[in-house]
Model the fold of this input.
Amino acid sequence: MCQTQSDQINEIAKALAAAQAELEPAAKNAENPHLRNRYADLSAVYEAIRKVLPKHGLAVAQVMLPRDDGKAHVRTTLLHESGQWIAGECVMPCDKQGGIQGMGSAITYARRYSLSAIVGVVSEVDDDAEAATNRRDAAQRQRQQARAANPNPMSEAQSKALMAYLNKRHGNDREAYCRELSDFFGRIIKSSRELTKTEVGDFLNAVNGGYHAQ
Done:
């Protein structure tokens, strides 16, 4: 296991405590296109610390670690002018883009998260956990309502067959899923859970040339 701090950390601890007393939250200057929530990107985190840390003899270094597991390994080290240091490693899997672009995105995420953590920088309003909980609860309520409104839901085999077809045809585009289902059934379909077992059977039979999942 890699060492995570120098033998002594009294000086860096004192300096970091003084710096954190002056740090302002990082501005949320970017938007997640999928979740529609705003967040502080890497540049915003650096902007929050770049003037405060040097005043207290502190600096940050981030390096990529060579690994062969296809993930981004970033080691972040908080340095003090005394020579004392604290370090940590962040491992982030590549996103679905893959390749160089996917690795670059993973590195950026790893740098942002580890930099924020090691210095103690937060965003303007740290409500990500609450927002995620609200989204999860809303999705669960939606599933429960769909089940209650559908007395004859599709079977597990039908669900797998339906999603295999829709994923192959439309990737992760949920709106495209619903458009195709709506066009087929002649009514607005907001979720496949609205469909009955008979309806899913009819759809699969039509698109798969006679195949009918039970």
